[in-house]
Every structure is written in structure tokens, then in C-alpha cells.
Amino acid sequence: MKTITRKSLDNSIKDGAAYSAMLGLTQDYVTPFALALKASVPQIGILSALPNLSVAFSQLFAPFLSERAQSRKSFVFKAVLLQAVCFLPAFIMPVLFRDFGVWWLILWYTLGTMFGSLGNPAWSSLMADLVPGSIRGRFFGYRGMIAGIMTLAFSLASGLLLQISTDTLFLGFGLIFFGASLARFISSFFLNKMEDPQAKAPVKDGVSMKALVMDLNKTPMGKFISYSALINFSTYIAAPFFAVYMLRELGFDYLTYIIVISSASVANFVFMKVWGRVCDICGNVKILKLCSIFVPVVPLLWIFSHNIYYLIGVQALSGIIWAGFLLSGTNYIFESSNRRNRMRGFALYTGGNSLGIALGALTGGFLVSILPQLNGYHMLSLFLVSVIARAIVVSLFINGIKEMKLKENPIPQAFISAYKLDLLALKIKIISQSIFQLPRIFRQPLRSGIVIRIFQLIIRF
């Protein structure tokens, strides 16, 4: 591998780490911030839907803007800077104007999400040129593992911060949003250090967005984009409302909330590298189909109990499933596209997913007010609707996704080694033991040693 490419991939990992720190600070705390601002359930649905609608809209012209920029890297860099700036008014304006605080939050969070997504097609095209196909699964698996560690660490830090700043809650949220902005600025620094192989001789997409849309049901990439969009629609009927269910209906405090949420992140980063290796050996479609079978199971399990230990296990299972689904899905887009249609292909993939997420969130926000209670909660009825919708999508569409390249003897190569089986079993044992230690660790009185214990827990993986 060329030295320049290796340095660019190293900087990509650092960029991903900083970006994931931003995600850890925000993705599980925007909804709690809205609830602290007295948001209603329909407003929570809009908070999830509107940013994703803006992403879907932005992907229509993102490739056009990228092709007219100086380079893909420069375009992504500018988009990331704009996103970093938006986190500051997303906190300041709602606090200054409390009467319309939720709407100010929705506005600035939507703008930040849209700016961040503008660079996605160009970034995906850039990474496709930088990462050799033979190591794509392993590279993105390793990058995803590092990203997962950072997401978990900063998510835990945010939960601790909110727990100790209960009397000054908005100060805690302010520090979280400031940290997210700083992390995104750091991300832009490492992005700017990457090389762009097309900077001197850019290759424009030879296929129009209209042509890709018209061929959605004819090409392997198009069929997967449709499937992914429908999966996201059925998933986000329920996804935005898990936080509402835990914080408002079950009455969890912030520490209990983050313990449950973080178990998915732990499982995600532990298994991301495993999934990357298996994808390279077995093929992406086999992993995609395997994970798809379990996608409807996760919200179903929420119906049976709200015991914290039980929910930790459910979220850990969710992290394992979605790690494999997202990694194999992204790799499949790389495989099923080429240099001349890749940027628009990723734009359509991002836009389709975002449109599905937005429509799912709006549908969930509407249904939750008219569904009957299940086991005493309206939210559980909504989760059941999501289960049914996911199962229908998987059963109707998953068999239409075909492998782009055949893998030879996947089972002997992947699983014949007893050593590898033992290693995987050991990882499963460690993650199970560590996740179930989290409630006991966090329930202890807060002291300086707890931070050390948390990071010792992370390092074990």
C-alpha cells in the first residue's frame, strides 16, 4: 500500500474517531434535551423526521455541488465546518427563547444535520478510491470499532455529566453541545489532511440521478437502496420513541438511560471488527440476510419486560445485529457501484435512508396517539407495529439482494478453526460480563475512581 494512501487511511480513522465523539455527545441526548425543553411526543417525531427530510432533499444536489468544487476533499471539509458551527446556536437559541425553544432546537439541529450530510456522497467516493477492495471489510470494521469506542466513551461521559448537573441541567447540555462542536472541528482537521486521488483529474459521474431512480428495481444497487429505505422506515416508526419510553414513561434517570443505550454501543464496537472479517470471507449478502432475520426481533423483545438487566441484554443484541447490517450494507454499495456512478449511488442511498427515517418518525408520532395501550403503555403498541412492518419488509425484499462476487468455501475459511471459535466465544463472554457490571458500577457513589473503572472496562475489549 502506498505511503500516501496509508497516511490518508490513518487520518480517516482519526476523523472517524472525532466524528464518533460528536455522535456520542449528541445522538442520544438531543431527544433528552428536547424533553427538558418540555417537548411533546409529536414534536419528538418532528425532531427526528425534519433533519432526515433535509438530508434526503440535500442528496438531490450534493453530487452536483461536489463535482463543481475544487476537489471532493475540499467540499467535504467545508460541509463539516458548517455542521460544527450549527451545534452552538442549537443550544444557545432554545435556552434564550424558551417559549419556542423546541422549535429553535429543531431548526438548528436540522441545518447541522443537512450540512453534515452534504459531504457524504463525496466522502464515500473518496474512500472507495483510497481503500483497496480486498481489505475493505477489515478496514471499515476496524474503523467502525474505533468509532464505537469513542461513541461509547463520550456517551458515558455525557450521561455522567447530566447526572451530576441535575440542579444545573442546561449547563450540562451546554457543555455537551460545545463538546460536539469542538469534536467536529477536530474531525475537519483530520479530513483536510487526507489525499484526494481525483484532485488533479476529477472523474464525474456518468449516470444521472434520474437514471438511477428509474432503475431502482432493475439493478443490484437499486434493489438494495429500496430495501434499506424500507427497513429504515419500519425501524424509525419506533426508534425515536425509545428515549421517550425510558425517560418519561418508565421514569429512568439519565444514568440508567445511558447504561441501557450504551450496551448497544459496546456490542457494536466489539463485533464490528468481527463482522468486517466475516464479510471479507463470506460475502456481504450472507451477513446482510443473517442480520435482517433478527432486525424485527429487537423491538419485539422490548414488549416483554422493562427490567434494566433485561433491556441491557436486548440493546446488546441490537448493537450486534445493526453492526453487521450497516457494515455489510455499506460494503454492498461499494461493490455494486463503480467510479462513474458511485457518488450519485451513495447520494441516493443516503437520501433514501433519510426519507425512510423521516416518514417512519412522522408515522410513529401520529400512531402513538391513537394506538391502544399494550401492557399499560401506548409506546409498546408502537413497538409492535414496528415489529410487523420490519418483518413484512424483510420477508418480501431480502431475497432480491444478490451477491456481487462469489466467495470460495466460506464456511471452512471462516469457521473451521477451533481457535477462532474459542476467541469469538471469549469475546461474547467478556461483553456479557462487562455489560451486566455496568449497573453495579454506576450505582456506586460517584468518585474519581469510577472514571478509571469505566475506561478499564472499555480497554478490556
Walk me through the structure:
With 461 residues, the chain is mainly α. 77% of the residues lie in helices and 0% in strands. The chain is built from 21 helices and no strands. Helix 1 packs antiparallel against helix 9, helix 5 (72-96) packs antiparallel against helix 9 (169-192) and helix 11 (220-235) packs antiparallel against helix 18 (378-397).
Jot down its keywords:
461 residues, mainly alpha, disordered C terminus, Growth Hormone, Chain: A
Q: What is the tally of beta strands?
A: 0
Rg over alpha carbons? 21 Å
Rounded average pLDDT: 80
CATH architecture: Up-down Bundle
Helix percent band: over 70%
Question: Based on CA inertia axes, which overall geometry fits?
Answer: globular
Which structural category fits the helices and strands? mainly alpha
In CATH terms, the superfamily is MFS general substrate transporter like domains
In what range is the share of β-strand residues?
Answer: under 5%
**Which runs of at least 5 residues are low in confidence (pLDDT < 50)?**
407-425, 445-461
Briefly note the CATH topology name.
Answer: Growth Hormone, Chain: A
Number of domains: 1
Tell me the name of the CATH class.
Mainly Alpha
**What's the number of helices?**
21
Major sheet size, sense and barrel closure:
none
* C-alpha end-to-end distance: 28 Å
